[in-house]
Design brief:
The complex is a heterodimer of chains A (about 110) and B (about 120). By secondary structure, chain A is an all-beta fold. Chain A has strands spanning about 5, 10-15, 20-25, 30-40, 45-50, 55-60, 60-65, 70-75, 85-95, 100-105, 105-110. Chain B is an all-beta fold and about 120 residues long. In chain B, strand 5 (about 45-50) and strand 6 (about 55) form a beta hairpin. The N and C termini of chain B lie far apart (about 30 Å). The chains are: A mainly beta (about 110), B mainly beta (about 120). At the A-B interface, strand 4, strand 5 and strand 10 of A face strand 5 and strand 9 of B.
């Protein structure tokens, strides 16, 4: 069964600090992995996408890594800002049936001043 | 929110009533999707449509129905048969195909509460 597990479920960090979110998956055959940011009460917005051959991708202060051998990904937030407070969702696409998506449960990040 | 609109933003329903959630996109995408989001859980696929007048059940289709009469529109009806309909509903659209970068763009969501 395809699964995506994220950790931690939630975390609190002080403004200006860095943090790293983890994502482990068992989706097969693998097509791509995305990280989405979801503000409370809003729809998710894509931050990064990585395919099998890509092991790092940056989008401003967000840097995602992918280890396709161990089926792990991480999202690193640098110099956090209050606007980074949101849920971060790891989504893995299977290379079949129109790229069906498997969603992780998300990590809720709260940045405090 | 990427050219996808959902309405209403908040919806209250009495038990036993059917309600319809609206989803419209102007991205010229062939594929559209409906997801349900519950606290602490990953999004779960309800229905999806690859093309007009065609749609497929997702993982949790029971108690829901959809139609796809126009490319731009994919309304979702939550019927009285849905046992626990209180949730946040998200609509998405994408290019359909086997491309590895077919991103799904999400609408702002509708929060449904059953009273």
């Amino acid at each position: 069964k395809n699964q995506v597990e994220q950790s931690p479920q939630s975390l609190i960090i002080l403004e200006g600090k860095n943090c790293t979110l983890q994502c482990n998956y068992t989706v097969s055959p693998f097509s791509n992995l995305r990280w989405y940011k979801q503000d409370t009460g809003r729809g998710p917005v894509s931050l990064t996408i990585m395919t099998f051959s890509e092991n790092t991708k940056s989008n401003g202060r967000y840097t995602a890594t992918l280890d396709a051998d161990t089926k792990q990904s991480s999202l690193h937030i640098t110099a956090s800002q209050l606007s980074d407070s949101a849920s971060y969702i790891c989504v893995v696409s299977a290379a079949a049936a129109g790229n069906k998506l498997t969603f992780g449960g998300g990590t809720r990040v709260l940045v405090k001043p | 929110d990427g050219g996808i609109t959902q309405s209403p933003k908040y919806l209250f329903r009495k038990e036993g009533q059917n309600v319809t959630l609206s989803c419209e996109q102007n991205l010229n995408h062939d594929a559209m999707y409906w997801y349900r989001q519950d606290p602490g859980q990953g999004l779960r696929l309800i229905y999806y449509s690859q093309i007009v007048n065609d749609f497929q059940k997702g993982d949790i289709a029971e108690g829901y129905s959809v139609s796809r009469e126009k490319k731009e529109s994919f309304p979702l009806t939550v019927t009285s048969a849905q046992k626990n309909p209180t949730a946040f509903y998200l609509c998405a659209s994408s290019i359909w195909g086997r491309g590895t970068r077919n991103e799904q763009f999400f609408g702002p969501g509708t929060r449904l509460t059953v009273l």
